[in-house]
Amino acid sequence: MQKIKVRLPATMTDFGPGVRTLGLALSLYANVDFSPRSDDDLIVETEGEGAGRYALGLRHPVVLGMMRVFQATEQAPSGVTIRIKNDIPLGSGLGAEEAFMTAGIIGANNLLNHPFNRDQLIQMASDATKRPDCAVTTITGGLTAHTYEDETVVHRSLALSPFKLILAIRTDDGYESPTLPTRVPMADMLRSLHNLPILIDALGAGNLPAVAASVQDGVLAEATRRRIGGFNHVAEVARLAGALGVTTSGGGPAMIFIAEDHHNRIAEAIETAFYNIQIPARVLIVPMDTQGVVISMMQSA
């Protein structure tokens, strides 16, 4: 029997003017192994970020993703062992939950000998997660954009000159992401629309000052910043240490800092800033991912 290994990257979404349209893959990964069993048992084992956060069984997001494929095909293996090793912080706005469910969809598709093609998997993952920006980006990697034709997700990969980002993620409990506003002032919407092509061009060209300038505003930006305790203080400390700018991902609490150099020095300053205001946080220096999903197969014992 073959063991299937699926690796999916974290996703940065809802940053600056790119709300619910752009996605950027980051080099933090959810790794999920699927091993068919000779019995009818379902075994789920977890380690890494968020281990123990979900029920181990039919309610785990990986299994929920698998069930989408099994229901669509009216087929399922007799039993399977699922081993999850996750490096993406849960509840951080970096797409961990969406990566889990997408991994389940991809893993089940491979267990059943590929009844669905790539675009069908993207559509299924988009419907399952209700976040096509995450689903498209974690599968294709790099910088992506999507829209709809009726209810069908239409996606494109955009030019990207990869660079490192500094991530700061609060580790205390109780953060709640802001909801999308039902109404947006025309001036705010126009500002976002004006900044969006500048941001896309800057990401493609690797123009970091332009990236930093164009992510400052967005329809979720102010609401997210207000919810992240100490945001303005930490942002100012990072600026003084050399950061060009800061944005957020997925409605927070992840703060994303843009810098051309001195990443380690800036990261240390951010850690100290959070420590001084007594908010627990992790700081990571993370490259961008341009591969997207990686699937490998090997013979299981």
UniProtKB/TrEMBL annotation:
GO terms for molecular function: ATP binding; kinase activity. Keywords: Amino-acid biosynthesis, ATP-binding, Kinase, Nucleotide-binding, Transferase. Gene3D superfamilies: 3.30.230.10, GHMP kinase, C-terminal domain. GO terms for biological process: amino acid biosynthetic process. It holds the Pfam family GHMP_kinases_N. InterPro entries: GHMP_kinase_C_sf (IPR036554), GHMP_kinase_N_dom (IPR006204), Ribosomal_Su5_D2-typ_SF (IPR020568), Ribsml_uS5_D2-typ_fold_subgr (IPR014721). Coiled coil: none annotated. Residues 64-130 form the GHMP kinase N-terminal domain. This is GHMP kinase N-terminal domain-containing protein. The lineage of its organism: Bacteria, Bacillati, Chloroflexota, Candidatus Thermofontia, Phototrophicales.
